[in-house]
Amino acid sequence: MLLDTCFLIDLQKELKRKEPGAAHAFLANWRGDYLGYSLITRMEFLEGYADSGLGIADRFLRPYKCLFPDLETAWRTSRIEWALRAGGNPIGDHDAWIAATALQHRLTLLTRNRNHFERIPGLPIAGY
After folding, report:
1. Is pTM, for the whole model, over 0.90?
2. Over 62-95, what HEC string results?
3. Which residues, in sequence order, are bridge partners of residue 38?
4. What is the edge-to-edge ordering of all strands in the sheet holding 125-126?
5. Is 18 helix (H, G, I), strand (E, B) or coil?
6. Residue extents of the structural domains in the chain
7. Under CATH, what is the fold of the domain 2-126?
8. Residue pLDDT, tens place only, 5-55
9. Which residue among 10, 37, 76, 102 has the highest number of C-beta atoms inside a 10 angstrom radius?
């Protein structure tokens, strides 16, 4: 399972409020063996932290594996972007990179942002 940025943000908010919600419920019921996120998700997530917050963010993300883009990811991203722009349905560069990472590693993307990601043929999506 590849975690989208919105999932990590929701999980973090639930922890801060000390009120379990949909993100916690998903993790409580998760029976798979892999939870990861893309480097692009890491960048988006870190935007919510001040310069002094990197250690806190690192501890929060530590249980999940970060997948780094490579040449194949770049190619897949370019194909996603090209096809969506040609169809008049672009989703934005960051989401295209995240989707390409999921496709490359044959992972289901966990997101509540179905509106963007459902535009990508063959991308398995799960909600929470």
Report:
1. yes
2. CCCEEECCCHHHHHHHHHHHHHHHHCCCCCCHHH
3. 67
4. 65-67, 36-38, 2-3, 109-110, 125-126
5. coil
6. 2-126
7. Rossmann fold (3.40.50)
8. 999 999 999 999 999 999 999 999 999 989 999 999 999 999 999 999 999
9. 102
